[in-house]
Structure formats: C-alpha cells, structure tokens
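Batch manifest line 688
LIGAND: MGD
JOB: complex structure
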Amino acid sequence: MDVKYIPTTCPYCGTGCGFNLVVKDNKVIGTAPWHRNPINQGKVCPKGNYAHEFVNSPDRLTKPLIKKNGQFEEATWDEAYKLIASKLKSFKPDEVGFFSSARISNEENYLVAKFARAVVKTPHIDHCARLCHASTVAGLAAVFGSGAMTNSIGDIADSKCIFVIGSNTFEQHPLIGRNMVLAQQKGAKLIVADPRVTPTAKQADLYMPFYSGTDVQIFNGMMHQIIKNGWEDKEFIKNRTKDFDKLKALVMQDKYNLENTAKISGIPADRIATAAEWFAKADSACICYSMGITQHSTGVDNVKSIANLQMITGNLGRPGTGVNALRGQNNVQGACDMGCLPNVYSGYQQVINEEMQKKMKDAWGVDTIAEGKVGYTVTDMINVAADKPGTLKCLYIVGENPMLSDPDLHHVKKGFDNLDFVIVQDIFMTETAQEADVVLPGACYAEKDGTQSNTERRVQKWRKAQDPPGEAKLDWQIICDIAKAMGYEKQFSYKSAEEIFNEIRKVTPSYAGITYARLDKADAVHWPCPTVEHPGTPILHKEKFATGDGIGILTPIEFKYPAEVPDAEYPLILSTGRCLWQFHTGSMTRRSEDLEREAPTGWVEICPEDAKALGIVNGEMVRAVSRRGKVDITAKVTEDIKKGEVFIPFHFAECAANILTNNALDPIAKIPEYKACAVRIEKITGGN
Ligand SMILES: Nc1nc2c(c(=O)[nH]1)N[C@H]1C(S)=C(S)[C@@H](COP(=O)(O)OP(=O)(O)OC[C@H]3O[C@@H](n4cnc5c(=O)[nH]c(N)nc54)[C@H](O)[C@@H]3O)O[C@H]1N2
Ligand SMILES: Nc1nc2c(c(=O)[nH]1)N[C@H]1C(S)=C(S)[C@@H](COP(=O)(O)OP(=O)(O)OC[C@H]3O[C@@H](n4cnc5c(=O)[nH]c(N)nc54)[C@H](O)[C@@H]3O)O[C@H]1N2
Ligand code: SF4
Ligand SMILES: [Mo]
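JOB STATUS: finished
ARTIFACT:
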C-alpha cells in the first residue's frame, strides 16, 4: 500500500505537539505518532489524534464567494480580487482594520501585517492574542522587559513545586499536563487554584477553590505569609529586583493577611498557608497559568502579581522555575512575534519609533507605510464599529471567528451591521463568514509548508501533506495576489514559504539565526536566536532581565473586584472557558466526528445547592440571563463547581456563552473580562 507519513505540527493548542499525517492517494487519512518529537515524544491528546478528520470535510470552502442581494454566489478568484482591490482602495487607510490569525503560519502572519501596513497603510492590525494573553504580553514586558513564557515545557517536569492557577492544563494543554505528572512522580508538589474542581485540580496535592476574580488577593495573601515568615529570597531580591520595600509595604497590610484572604477568596486559610510554605521552601517552583489569570479587567494586575511572587521567591532564570504563561492557539506566539499587533512590527519593534519605521520601509521597498501611531486592538475595532459608526468601514478577517468568540455578541453583531465591507478568509463557513461580503477559501495546516511558534517560543515546521480542496489557496498566496492586484507586484513576489521566512529573518533580530535547514535538522529552535551559530534560548532571564537596566520591577498591586459583581437580580458569577474535546468556536472540532460525539452541545455547570434552591435537576433545560442577553442551555448539576459560581464552555453557537459575557476591558491590555460577570439562572416553565 502506498502510504506516506509526513511529520508536522498540531493545528490546535500552543503546546505545539508533533505527529505524522498519514497520506494515501494524495489525501490525508489519519495521524500516527512521531516518537522522537522533543515536545510530546509521540503522545497526543484527542484533538491531535483526530486532527485529520476536519481536513477533508465536505464543508470545506472550495471557491470564493461574493454576496449579492444577501445571498452568497460562487465567483472566480479574479472577480473576488478585483472587487477587494477596488474596495480597499476606496477607503481611507484609517477606515480599514485587519484581524490576523493565530491559526496560520508565521510566514502568513508576517505577510498580513506587511499587507496592512505597506499596502493598505492602516495601523489597525491585531488578532485573538488580544482575547487571550494580551495581559501577559503587556504585564511581563513591563516588569521583565519581555512578554513571553520564561521557561520551556520539558523544564516543568524538573520543577519541585508547580503552582497552577487559572489553567485547566489537563484539558487545555494536556501534553504540558503530562510534564506536571512526570514532576509529581519525581516527588514534586502540585498546587492547583481554580473555582472549579477540574481534572487538573483532581490531580493536585493541594487544591484551592476560590471565587472568580479574586486572584490578586490570593497572590498578595501568599506573599504576606511568605514575608511574615521570612521565606523570601533575600539575595535574589537584592541583586535582581527593585522596589521590594514598596511591595512589602502594600502586601503586609492587614487586609492581605490569611483571615481576610480566606474571606475574600473563599479558600480555607490553612490551605493558603500550606501553599505559601510549599511554594516558598521548594528548591525550584514554577507558576503555570492561562486564561483564568488574563481574561479579567484586572488581567495585567494579575500577571504582574505572578511576576512579583516569582521574583520575591527567586524563582526565575533557573530550570524548574519561571512564569509559564501557557499560550493558547497553535501559533498565537508566532502571530505576536510577526507583528500582528497594533503597536509593534515583527520582533516587538515599536511602530512609534521612527528608526523602526524607516527600517521597515526600506525592507519592504515602499515609500510610505501606515502612519507611525498605535492602531486599534481587536476589541477597539469591534467597539468602534458598534458605537462610532463611520469611523471604521471595512474589516479584513483572516482565520478568526469574532461572531462567536468576542464578548457580548449582540454588540459584535451591531458592529458588523455598521460596516460597509467585510472580507473573511477561512477554511469553513463560520458565523463571521456569514456576515461577510466576500469569503475567500484558505488552505489548512495539512496543505501548507510554513513555521509556527509554540508557547515556549519554539519555532517548528508544518509540512504539506496534500493539496488544498477545490480552488482553495494558501493564505500567503491570497495575500500576495491581492497585493499584486493593488500594484505591489515587486514587494509580494514570493515563490515559497521559505522565501518569506528568509525575509522575516532579515528584519526580526530574535529569528535571525533560525533557518529552514536548521529546523529540519533539529526539529525546532527557541527564539531569541540571533545568529545561525546560536543554540536558541529555552530559558529567559538567566543572569538579567530584558529591562533597560536588567533589573526586574516589583509592583505593588491592590486587589480590585471584577467590573460586574453579583447582586440581587443577577446573583451568580458566570465564568466561561473550554472543554477537552472542542476547540474554540468549533469550526474544526465540530466537524470532527470523534470529537463532536464526546461533547455534542454546551451546558451550564451549577452546584447541587444552588440548583436545589432554583428547583433545577441535572439535565434540565434552563435559561441563563445576564444584562446583555439570554441563552437556553442544559444544566449540569455537579459538586465540581463552587457555590455561587456557574460555568459555560464557549464552543457552541446554539447556546453561546458570549451572548452573556461582559465587554469590560483591562485598561492596558484591552482584554475582555470573559472569566467573571453576573448572571441568574431561571427555570424554564411551560409556554415560556
Ligand atoms: N480543548 C481545548 N484546548 C484548548 C483550547 C480549546 O478551545 N479547547 N483553546 C486554547 C486556547 S486559545 C487557550 S487561550 C487555552 C486556554 O486554556 P485555559 O486557560 O486552561 O482554559 P479556560 O477553560 O479558558 O480557563 C482555565 C481555568 O480558569 C478557571 N477560572 C475561571 N475563573 C477564574 C478566575 O477568576 N481566576 C482564575 N485563576 N481561574 C479562573 C476556569 O475554571 C478554568 O478551569 O487553551 C488552549 N487549548
Ligand atoms: N466566553 C469566552 N470567549 C472567549 C474565550 C473564553 O475563554 N471565554 N477565550 C478567548 C480566546 S483565549 C481566544 S484565543 C479566542 C479564539 O477566538 P477565534 O480565534 O475567533 O476562534 P477560532 O474558532 O479559533 O477561530 C479560528 C478560525 O480560523 C479558521 N482557520 C483554521 N485554520 C485556518 C487556516 O489555515 N487558514 C485560514 N484562513 N483560517 C483557518 C478556523 O476555521 C476558525 O474559523 O476566543 C476568545 N473567546
Ligand atoms: S496538547 Fe495541544 S498541541 Fe498537543 S495534541 Fe493536544 S491539542 Fe495538539
Ligand atoms: Mo486563547
């Protein structure tokens, strides 16, 4: 039998596992283990295992579509390009916005940013990192000078104490979770703090249940306890940090003592005390966190609090330590690295810096680029479209589905209704594509060569296993074709992904030493990697931080409640998130038979006591209502959630969590508060 095995990288989460795609007759038919992959050693979670199932789904987009009189009609590429080019030219640069994608390659993200800034000349480009780790990027850049995960995945297995907060690692980054179990087998302690008794919490040696949104109180409470007992790392504080006195003055106030922290967070005081002791006394201790920390109107405060705890305990720059922000999507790190953010070019080079503007103009061969100002974020673009009609007129969305993933969906819909022209480039007809004027069929990961960068800054390859279906095209080719149709032939004349990567290397110091040949030989390299001789950097901040003076900044942070807290009308805290089987808006996983079977629709988790008070039984259809909307959804009565909290996964369009969520933003990171808003649950009575 003529079967080929093509090694590639998983298209789902930021762990970046490798596996082989099994190809027969030029069609992907399965996956098979890639045993010597350095990240997952041949093991995968169910999404990786079934990552071939959506690839040849009959629902794949195969032809460009143009909406005429409210209906999509098939069009030729030429028609679509002509229409897009003429529309993009008809708007002022400032009236056009771009959503790039954490699902496409580095090469493709780099070209989306180049197209936005050099061809359309708009500063408005961003992507879903805004909804995800924007707080990390802003928070860690402020205190360490670099906004990325500090250590590597394999390193977690060498830690002596792992504190997981706001990450359901075993469901959302299962192959990182595996390293936590390996550490436990070597005697490490696993501490998990989460409002829900998740599969991750069940694996913990110490579990701390708490009310959503009380994270800063918990960190300050732990630091209070550590300093009170003299467990802080005085050498590290003296040599590598500044402003300890200010931090100490704040956290040593009575309001951050054990009793008050227990009262505010809902965690029993003795568990906070034990966690603080285990953590501070361990030879090496790391923190792993994700959306429970970042998706708050205080997201940046939460991240800086984590950095504070790690600096006062000296847990940075060594194996087994670190601030491990577990990045979400397969290439969200890469989309940020490539400058698909409104304030930076690739390699985090500031757009407001005139030298950088000149450097990019020269490299891109253009006389003018987007005005050197910081553009709108994803959340700004939706808000401006909804609330200031006429300011933004056109959105070009590549590989994102804001009509299901953004907060307060009625408000998002209002934004789309106000736009003059919407282009969506995706692999499926999503809720957002339905809103578009033109839909362009992209090729998926199994159909392209390219690189992606995982959560630990490891750059890895995708390798083409089959041709795209129908007339679908590689995302980078689509961008190049449109650029050419707009008169930028010379600047977009690439013949391969590698050629684009070599341009990236020239303008991006942290990627300069990474080559396709190296990636093929070593399977992956961690940036920063400034020269071809450089081995790459698995651990950041070894001797000094990336701040101007190399010193880490301790930041006193007061606890603040979420923007919306429960009251008599909306008495419960709603938190939202994910489950193991589905990925985000489900465009891919819901078209994967084996995954969809395991989690075919959404639910609301509620504890038995709250359910009983409402007269609700397990499996009953109930109504969840917030100030922004309501959804009918099945109740899952479970001991695994704290009293006073409910939880809804956001994957399912038929009971979309984001109809309910609050569009309150962190003032710096502009990330929405997906993890806490106020709702009530109603029993649905007959005829309602
Ligand atoms: N199966 C699957 N895996 C995924 C994804 C997916 O959709 N499906 N998405 C990927 C992406 S993009 C991301 S960003 C990651 C996200 O990965 P995670 O952040 O691990 O996932 P979430 O379910 O969003 O939230 C994590 C935990 O935060 C808890 N939480 C709720 N409120 C709070 C709070 O106020 N404070 C704290 N500290 N915790 C709270 C929730 O109970 C939940 O267990 O997963 C990635 N992996
Ligand atoms: N309530 C609530 N909402 C949330 C969150 C939450 O925790 N709670 N989490 C937020 C987070 S962390 C994130 S990251 C966002 C994710 O939000 P989105 O990024 O909007 O969600 P996805 O479903 O991942 O959308 C990716 C799209 O890319 C398409 N795609 C996949 N591969 C390719 C490709 O190769 N080419 C092209 N052109 N398209 C491709 C997919 O079909 C899909 O439509 O959701 C956010 N929304
Ligand atoms: S852990 Fe993440 S990268 Fe690994 S197989 Fe699962 S979804 Fe893919
Ligand atoms: Mo994410």
